[in-house]
Amino acid sequence: MKNNVVADDIRELFSQAMSQMYQQEVPQYGTLLELVADVNLSVLEKSPKLHEQLANAGELARLNVERHGAIRVGTAQELATLRRIFAIMGMHPVGYYDLSQAGVPVHSTAFRPIDDAALARNPFRLFTSLLRPELIEDTLLRQQALDILAQRDIFTARCRELLALHEQQQGFSAQQAQEFVNEVLETFRWHSHATVDAATYGALHQAHRLVADVVCFRGCHINHLTPRTLDIDRVQAMMPQYGITPKAVIEGPPRREHPVLLRQTSFRALEEQIVFSGDSPGTHTARFGEIEQRGMALTPKGRALYDRLLFEAGSGEDNLTHQLHLQDVFQSFPDDECEIMRQQLGYFRYRLTPVGEGHRHAIRPGDDAWHLIERGWLEAHPITYEDFLPVSAAGIFQSNLGDQTKTFSAGHASRESFIAALGCPPLDEFALYQEAENRSKRRCGLL
Ligand code: OOG
Ligand code: NI
Predict the structure, then answer these.
(1) Ligand 1, from 94, 127, 132, 208: best to mutate by most atoms within 8 Å of Cβ?
(2) What are the pLDDT digits (tens) for 320-329?
(3) Max Cα separation, the chain?
(4) 321/312 Cα distance (integer angstroms)
(5) Segment (H or E) for 283
(6) pLDDT at residue 206 above 90?
(7) Does residue 339 belong to any structural domain of this protein?
(8) Which domain does 223 fall in, by range?
(9) CATH code of 30's domain
(10) Residue 96: which of 431, 416, 432 has the closest Cα?
């Protein structure tokens, strides 16, 4: 039996299994998938140009399977084990997000595929947050949280065995891969039985709702799975017709001819029946729904401009007014691919046209890409943003926290401790996009 199942296949199996499980757990997620699929289909029908662009960029195939999810873990060991598990699926930690500034006592990374072929196949990503117990002010309660976390094992015994086996064999057979996916799924399953009594839950919830969510259960349940839409304004407007109430405001940049980064909206977390130890009934709100629209990845210069404009625009209460205001403020962000390229605000993937192929011998490293595009030898496709936005993430977290807008005085970023917990530094998103652009330039003879 050969142990040669590739990571991309395991990730594909895993993302399908997660999606199926979440559809069973949260039926509204299934409704959201239908809505997004309908909207995407009609957008593509109405815009043959977009259809062609997506097909050319190799993004049409991945659109229907594309999801991101989010999980929250309690300890360094849990995070480090997840890193090993996700590596088997070709998902690596990218970026560091400090959410403490937004009053949320976690810091995060995103596990995702990083090379072109893996992203084209299935870009499944998991936004993964680690609790920062040092931000629980009450020291007794903090210790209690740590003790509870120390007692749980969020991984099945078989999952651990298979993990060790993979590291030893350097691969899985088809049957082992399937078994591994089934076992990993258990870690992210919802448990309606809390591991603590109602009083302990209450005290942890009082410290922060997210503390209760991370500490009081046997696993780290997936808290949302997000499909990618081609028109988020349309989905937002249609959600009520499908019986779903969206959060008030779409997060991220305004609607544009050439979308950048990420726009997101969500529906509020559900209030779910749970049972505390001692069999007393209660409720817990953690799981919600979200959709996103992805655009072009920005260079550090483009990102700085985005951050400045977003800050300038501030936040709004009513979506329509906020979107109009955003459009106004974002006038100074060019909405034209040539201009974005000229000002080096975004990343592009370059490709020779058939005519360009015919003149390959005449292309020299260092030639001006723009010149070759004008001559019809070269085309440029924007590189899709594969990551997250901390301000948007904070907005999503907060829309689920109701009135609880606590901030932490000790909330400095703690990158070093996150790296120590993870077991390696997360990869730098800008470096990854730059490498992707450079690879394409090299293929064209431009580097
Ligand atoms: C994660 C929230 C962040 C996103 O899309 O920005 C997120 C969480 O609630 O655990 O998923
Ligand atoms: Ni999300």
Answers:
(1) 127
(2) 999 999 999 9
(3) 78
(4) 15
(5) strand 281-285
(6) yes
(7) no
(8) 7-291+391-426
(9) 3.10.180.80
(10) 416
CA–CA distance, 210 with 99 (Å, rounded to integer): 12
| Per-residue model confidence as pLDDT tens digits over 100-124 | 877 889 999 999 999 999 999 999 9
Half-sphere exposure of 185 (CA within 13 A, CB side): 20
Give residue 392's pLDDT.
77
Mutation test of ligand 1: which of 104, 109, 224, 391 has the most ligand atoms closer than 8 Å to its C-beta? 224
Query: Residue 1 pLDDT > 70, yes or no?
Result: no
Residue 333 beta carbon below 6 angstroms from any ligand 1 atom: no
For ligand 2, the distance from its centroid to the CA atom of residue 224, given in whole angstroms, is: 7
Query: Which ligand lies nearest to the CA atom of residue 108 in the structure?
Result: 1
Q: How high does pLDDT run on average in the chain?
A: 93
Any idea which ligand is nearest the CA of 262? 1
Residue 136 forms part of a structural domain: yes
Report the length, in residues, of the chain.
Answer: 447
Q: 75 CB under 6 A from ligand 1?
A: no
The ligand minimizing its distance to the Cα of 400 is 1
Q: Residue whose CA is closest, atom 6 of ligand 1? A: 393
- State how many domains the chain has: 1
Q: Is residue 383 part of a domain?
A: no
Q: What is the DSSP string of 23-38?
A: HHH-HHHHHHHHHHHH
Q: What is the pLDDT of residues 253-263, one digit of tens each?
A: 999 999 999 99
- Nearest ligand 1 atom to alpha carbon 251: 6
What is the DSSP secondary structure assignment for residue 90, as one 8-state letter?
Answer: T
Place of tokens 């019986």: 243
